[in-house]
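Help needed: design a sequence for this.
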């Protein structure tokens, strides 16, 4: 993968990003990729040398790596930054956990992210990631009793916390993750391996959820007003509201966007599905 520098960031920052020492080790797939869309992973694998990502898009990832190094200094008894592997269906899966306390059985993961990411609780990929890591630990003789994500909010604001009731009250949030049964973990892992193995032979379509697709919106606008009076996802409901609102109102269609494809998938330039759907969204 090529790291570009479109915004002329300081060379020290860019070099730190380019010299990322991370490796998933000798394996067929990492835990992170196992929970990722099979189409995305297969395309990245096939076009890795031609992929491009700008350094500006990696800054927060670099910040997260720095936080991991700092937090590792606090440990006296827990196991940290340890990579483990398991084999399933002929594939070796590799995963690295952030912190595991063998006394309490608590497996923790540190994430540096935005306040928006935690407003609705844990994300599905976080739940899957932590439970696969728990499987790796159990495979190596550890007893995992609890899962948690320690989230460091990079954009937290004290003033916003004082104004809004649904805003995080502190810059560090601990999110408890549901611990799946061993049977559910194994079923999930087997299904994900099957999907990724199949994707190497024939690319599947990414689902709306995998593309982080936002819904189409119908905005009820009023003459002389810049912001929408009301937003609708249902077209019939929007048309009825517009009709009842009077002549000075009109509907404006705002097509949904595939957020992951547009901003977070380096394989998008090589993705036929994205190239096919992007012009349609632009026309609407």
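Sure. Designed sequence:
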């Amino acid at each position: 993968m090529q790291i570009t520098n479109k915004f002329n960031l300081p060379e020290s920052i860019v070099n730190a990003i380019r010299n990322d020492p991370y490796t998933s080790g000798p394996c067929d797939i990492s835990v992170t990729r196992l929970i990722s869309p099979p189409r995305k992973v297969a395309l990245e694998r096939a076009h890795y040398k031609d992929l491009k990502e700008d350094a500006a898009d990696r800054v927060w990832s670099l910040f997260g790596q720095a936080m991991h190094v700092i937090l590792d200094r606090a440990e006296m008894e827990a196991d940290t930054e340890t990579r483990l592997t398991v084999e399933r269906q002929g594939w070796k899966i590799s995963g690295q956990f952030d912190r595991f306390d063998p006394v309490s059985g608590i497996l923790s993961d540190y994430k540096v992210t935005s306040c928006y990411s935690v407003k609705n609780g844990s994300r599905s990929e976080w739940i899957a990631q932590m439970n696969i890591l728990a499987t790796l630990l159990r495979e190596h003789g550890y007893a995992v009793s609890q899962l948690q994500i320690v989230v460091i909010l990079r954009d937290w604001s004290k003033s916003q916390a004082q104004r809004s009731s649904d805003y995080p009250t502190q810059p560090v949030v601990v999110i408890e993750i549901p611990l799946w049964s061993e049977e559910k973990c194994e079923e999930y892992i087997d299904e994900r391996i099957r999907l990724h193995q199949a994707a190497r032979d024939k690319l599947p379509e990414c689902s709306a959820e995998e593309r982080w697709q936002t819904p189409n919106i119908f905005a009820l606008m009023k003459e002389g007003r810049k912001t929408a009076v009301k937003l609708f996802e249902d077209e019939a409901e929007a048309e009825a509201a517009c009709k009842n609102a009077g002549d000075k109102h009109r509907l404006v269609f705002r097509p949904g966007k595939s957020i992951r494809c547009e901003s977070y998938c380096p394989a998008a330039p090589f993705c036929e599905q994205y190239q096919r759907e992007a012009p349609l969204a632009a026309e609407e």
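The radius of gyration is 22 Å.
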